[in-house]
Amino acid sequence: MKASKALSGISRRDLFKLSGQYGMSSVVLGASTFAGVATLPELVRAAESSYEKRFAKEPKHTFKLGAAGFNARNLLIERAGVLEFARDLESRTDGEVRVEFIGDNQICGQPNCVEKAQSGIIDMYSASTQNSAGGAPYLNVLDYAYMFPSRASQYHFFYSPESQEVLRDPFEKRHGLKFLFTHAELRGIQTGQSFADKPTVTKLEELFGTKNRVTGTQLGRIAMELLNLNPVPIAWEETLDGLKQGLIDGAETWASAVAYANMAPVVSQSVDLRFFCGTEHTAMSASAFDSLSGELQDAVLESAYLAQVHVQAANEAALVKTVGFSDPVLPGTIFAENDVRPAFLADDQIKMAEEMCSPEFNPEPWAAWRERLNGWSGGLDTYQMIYDVARQIPADTLAENVEPRRWWKA
To answer: b or e along 297-336 (b: 16 or more beta carbons within 10 Å of the residue's beta carbon)?
Structure first.
């Protein structure tokens, strides 16, 4: 939390000014050296020192990383690992690779970061796989309902060699992008003010018939329709007003997204439906990766691995201690301060939802997309393969206890 504390006393205007002078990466790296709140002059000196270190030599490669709406503050709420990756890659390559972090939707937003990476406007991006699925439809492969039973199963899959075969290789072949690492949560329904005065949700049927905002995932819409959750595609900038005014009852997303995107003031309950992936991934243009020497390619993979390990531990801690996604909600968390009630459904309610909408119990609605994704994968049974890998670990495994592995090594 060092960078968050250091930046908490700095105005947005001063932060943007510093970022314009030294770059966001240099400012955040400088801020991370402080144990508490830094004064503006102290942060200026730290940013300048970081800048001078990073720019001490001319890099062989400079890559633009478009990080949607992320910035130094909210990356310490949802621990997506983007800055840790950039920092480590620059250090690991001794400055031969420089990463220019461009967040706050300055160069790309959630729906179009993937397209700007494909077109060469940026070299790397960070955004949710669900929003990115509009420009890279193979990412729908992660969104079969109840394919992942837990966050632990998600991390286990992303570390597994099987993820190379069924996710990363087809994604690169079809869309020209390398899937590097990702944060892992499971999506639920974040209810707006229409649920503020209602008891905390305990039964699945209490959500039936509600109208909910959906992201760009095609498979997510299938699950929502089968659960009678009436998916409505609404622009992100209109979602907050819709929740506040009761025009929609909820939005499908995950807990830390509510917190980092400043949705908490208009969300009343965070219902832990866990019905499909919420994965804020970072990816790289395959052509940019291929432009690197073998040694630098290895460095990118090792930095991605370090970032994945960091995210696994840091986001699990932040969910409880920063977001407040726990029972009871810890005081001082974002959920506590905004009266957001987590609603953790009992196992029988999750099982009911799974039987209503998952391909295992209700295969027909998924058949067309499953056939399409299987074809794009080169003939794999994408759902069954990921489903099986996700259950290679005991069901009660904690996410922070999943063994890290270098997925590109068999």
So the answer is: eebbbebbbbbbbbbbebbbebbeebbbbbeebeeebbbb
- Please give the pLDDT value at position 2: 47
Domain range for residue 212?
Answer: 57-410
pLDDT per residue as tens digits for the range 321-344: 999 999 999 999 999 999 999 999
Amino acid at 196: A
| Torsion angle (degrees, nearest 10) of CA 362, 360, 157, 283 | -20
- The residue type of 357 is C
Q: Helix 151-159 vs helix 382-390: angle between axes, to the nearest 10 degrees?
A: 110
Residue 36, pLDDT score: 57
> How many domains does one find in the chain?
1
HEC profile of 101-125: EECCCCCCCCCCHHHHHHCCCCCEE
Contact of 207 with 201, CB cutoff 8 Å: yes
Q: pLDDT tens digits for 368-385?
A: 999 999 999 999 999 999
The answer to the question of residue 145 being in a domain is: yes
CA angle 177, 181, 185 (to 5 degrees): 120
The sign of the dihedral angle between the CA atoms of 196, 198, 203, 204 is negative
pLDDT for 9 equals 64
Burial class (CB in 10 A: 0-12, 13-18, 19+), 185: buried
What is the reported pTM? 0.91
Q: Residue 306 is part of a domain; what is its CATH number?
A: 3.40.190.170
d(CA 89, CA 164): 21
Q: Is residue 296 part of a domain?
A: yes
pLDDT (0 to 100) of residue 44: 78
Any domain includes 332:
yes
Residue 298: both structure tokens together:
């290895």
User: How far is Cα 7 from Cα 25, in angstroms, rounded to an integer?
Assistant: 13
- Residues of the chain whose pLDDT is less than 70? 1-9, 29-37, 236
Cα gap 352→205, rounded to integer Å: 10
**Which alpha helices (DSSP H) does 227-293 contain, by range?**
236-245, 255-260, 286-290
Q: Is residue 30 part of a domain?
A: no
